[in-house]
Amino acid sequence: MSTSNAATTSGAASTPVFAAQQTMVAPPAPRRRVTRKTWQTVVWLVVLLALTAVVLYPLVWLLFSTFKPNAEFGQNPGLLPQSPTIDNYIKVLEGIAGVPMWRFYANSLLIAVASVIGTVISSSLAAYAFARIQFKGLGVLFAAMIGTLLLPFHVVIIPQYIIFNRLDMVDTFWPLLLPKFLATEAFFVFLLVQFMRQMPRDMDEAARIDGAGHVRIFWSIILPLVKPALITCSIFAFIWSWNDFLGPLLYLTSPDNYPLPIALRLYNDQTSSSDYGATVTASFIALVPVLLFFLVFQRFLVDGVATQGLKG
C-alpha cells in the first residue's frame, strides 16, 4: 500500500511538473505568430504609404507649381519653386478675355448643380417606372435603354447639335442641361433600377391598400430608401459635369458663358507662347471644388456602391 501510495503521489507530483513544463514551452509559438503578423502589417503599411505618395505627388506638384514664375517651368521641373511668387494667382483671379475668374466659376457651378438636379429627378423617375411598374413593352424599352450605354457619346453629337441649333439654343446653357432632365444618362437609370429592384414589393402593396398611388409610393417610400444610390449618382453627375469639356466647347461661343474647362484653354490660345504659370494655377483652382465635394461625400459614395451588392 505504501508503495502504491508513493507511486500515486509521485505520479500526481510529476503531472503538474509536466504540465508546468508544457505551459512554459507553449508561449513561443504565439509570439512568432504575433511577430509575423506585425511584420506583415508593417510591410503592407509601407506599400500603401508608397502608393499614396505616388498618387498624391502630381497634386502636390501642382500646388507648389502655382508659386513658380512662368520662366521657371522650363528650368526647374522639381517640386519646390526657386523663386516663389503669387503673381500667378493675381493674374488668374483678374480673369481673361475681359471675363473675371468668378464668372467662369459661377458658370461651372450653375451647370454642375443644375445637371445634378436634372439627373437625380429624371433618372429616379425613369428607374421607378422600369423597376416597380409593369407595362407592355417594358423589356424592349429597358433593353433599348441599356443599348444606349454601348453607343459612344460622339455618335449623337451631330444630331443633337442640329436639333439645338434649329431650336436657337446654341450659345446657351440649355443644350447642356435639357438632356439631363430627360433621363438621357442611362448609367444612372440602370444603377437606380438595380437598387430599386432589391426592395420587397410588399411595401408597394401595403401602400396601395392604404390608398397610396404611384406618386405617393415614389415620394414617401422609394426615395428615402434609395438615398445612398441618389447620392452616388449626384457625386458622379457633379464631377462629370464640372469636368465636361466637349459639350461646352460645341455649344458655347461667348466667353461670358464659358465654364472653367473652356476658360483654361484660353491661357494657352491667347498668344503663341503658353502661360504655364497661369494655366497651372487656374487648373488647381478649378480642381479644389471637385476635391472638396468628393472628400465630403466619399462616405456616401462608398455606402451607395457597397449597397448594390446587398439583397433586400
Automatic annotation (TrEMBL):
Topology in membrane: Multi-pass membrane protein
GO biological process: transmembrane transport
GO cellular component assignments: plasma membrane
Localization terms from the record: Cell membrane
Pfam families listed in its UniProt record: BPD_transp_1
Keyword list, A-Z: Cell membrane, Membrane, Transmembrane, Transmembrane helix, Transport
Main location: membrane
Transmembrane segments: 41-64, 109-131, 138-164, 176-196, 217-242, 276-297
Residue ranges constituting the ABC transmembrane type-1 domain according to the UniProt record: 105-297
Record's keyword annotation contains Transport: yes
Keyword Cell inner membrane: no
Protein family according to the UniProt entry: Belongs to the binding-protein-dependent transport system permease family.
PANTHER family found in the cross-reference section: ABC TRANSPORTER PERMEASE PROTEIN MG189-RELATED-RELATED, ABC TRANSPORTER PERMEASE PROTEIN YESQ-RELATED
Name of the protein in question: Carbohydrate ABC transporter permease
